[in-house]
């Protein structure tokens, strides 16, 4: 059974991540992020995203980064808005609700892309004591369906949310793929968002995501929340060293560019086989329509994910390590099944 397209989490770690770990494994260093490597990595993130005043936190997982961001933004009587397919809504086991105490409300979306006017109705409910009070909206770049917010749409969305006095969180577990796809600066890919989860693991690291907090005044106590949920790494230098290595010489964008290109190649291959793509391939994920029998038989060879069991669409994810040979193999296997 091949896991080649199961997830970018199934990919191996990039050799640069392992080298980075080895390089900082030299003697003792201050614990809990008070070390020099962590300081340098935080500076590198601030520089990359052009926000010299941002606070930077590191976590082991993207779920933790999302939860820390949201739980430190809201009171239990407030409301978090997100798309109907948001990872925080459907794939974090209710963690954001449990740890923030706040209501999570789904907004209609097109593959995770939300029309800014969808926020208006919720903002208008503010005031009466009977309603949860909207405080923050979370969007995902690139989205759970592998779509990318174009820079102008991102700016428009974030600005509209701010006009409505909503904070904006960007779940950037695959932010590198979006930046690479857009060909814009990292800053442009996130607009003026307040807090950003910057993915590392899916991008090729062994482990580690980061939080870029651009408006720290809105996230009081964020470091306490990080500690409470067990994501203040005592040996943080090993997370930070990987970020340093990936931000250096734009390795994070090179790995993402490769993953995106492989996904484009895979999508084109599916279309040549006469299969229909469920949505455009814009980053490193491909969603293809497969009837139940073909999916079942493919499942004998490949572990692939069907996000919604009621919809005959299967997800293929490419990573920094996806080879042309792996793409040829899966296309040949499918050709034999169709
Ligand atoms: C969009 C998105 N956000 C967050 C996460 C969470 O990352 P982790 O598995 O590291 O907790 C994932 C993981 O698949 C994801 O796809």
Automatic annotation (TrEMBL):
Please list the GO biological process terms of this entry. amino acid metabolic process
Pfam families listed in its UniProt record: Beta_elim_lyase
Q: Tell me which species this is from.
A: Mycolicibacterium duvalii
Q: Tell me what gene encodes this.
A: ltaE
Keywords assigned by UniProt, alphabetized: Pyridoxal phosphate
Report the family membership.
Answer: Belongs to the threonine aldolase family.
Domain of life the protein comes from? Bacteria
**What cofactor is this protein dependent on?**
pyridoxal 5'-phosphate
Q: Which GO terms describe its molecular function?
A: lyase activity
> Where would I find the Aromatic amino acid beta-eliminating lyase/threonine aldolase domain in this sequence?
5-292
Stated name of the protein: Threonine aldolase
């Amino acid at each position: 059974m091949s896991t080649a397209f199961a997830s970018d989490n199934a990919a191996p770690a990039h050799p640069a991540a392992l080298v980075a770990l080895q390089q900082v494994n030299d003697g003792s260093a201050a614990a809990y992020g008070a070390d020099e490597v962590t300081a340098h990595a935080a500076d590198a993130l601030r520089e990359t995203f052009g926000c010299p005043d941002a606070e930077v936190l590191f976590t082991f997982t993207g779920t933790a980064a999302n939860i820390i961001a949201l739980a430190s933004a809201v009171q239990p009587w407030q409301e978090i808005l997100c798309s109907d397919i948001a990872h925080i809504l459907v794939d974090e086991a209710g963690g954001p609700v449990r740890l923030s105490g706040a209501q999570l409300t789904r907004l209609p979306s097109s593959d995770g892309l939300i029309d800014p006017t969808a926020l208006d109705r919720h903002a208008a409910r503010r005031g009466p004591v009977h309603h949860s009070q909207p405080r923050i909206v979370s969007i995902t770049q690139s989205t759970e369906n592998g779509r990318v917010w174009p820079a102008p749409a991102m700016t428009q969305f974030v600005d509209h949310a701010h006009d409505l006095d909503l904070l904006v969180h960007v779940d950037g577990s695959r932010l590198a793929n979006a930046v690479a796809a857009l060909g814009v600066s990292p800053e442009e890919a996130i607009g003026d968002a307040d807090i950003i989860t910057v993915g590392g693991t899916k991008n090729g690291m062994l482990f580690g995501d980061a939080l870029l907090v651009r408006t720290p005044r809105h996230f009081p106590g964020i470091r306490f929340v990080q500690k409470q949920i067990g994501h203040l790494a005592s040996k943080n230098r090993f997370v930070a060293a990987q970020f340093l290595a990936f931000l250096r010489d734009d390795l994070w964008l090179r790995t993402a560019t490769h993953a995106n290109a492989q996904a484009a190649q895979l999508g084109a291959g599916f279309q040549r086989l006469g299969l229909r793509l469920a949505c455009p391939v814009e980053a490193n994920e491909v969603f293809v329509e497969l009837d139940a029998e073909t999916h079942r038989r493919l499942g004998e060879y490949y572990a692939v994910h069907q996000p919604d069991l009621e919809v005959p669409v299967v997800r293929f994810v490419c990573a920094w390590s996806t080879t042309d040979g792996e793409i040829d193999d899966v296309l040949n296997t499918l050709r034999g099944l169709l």
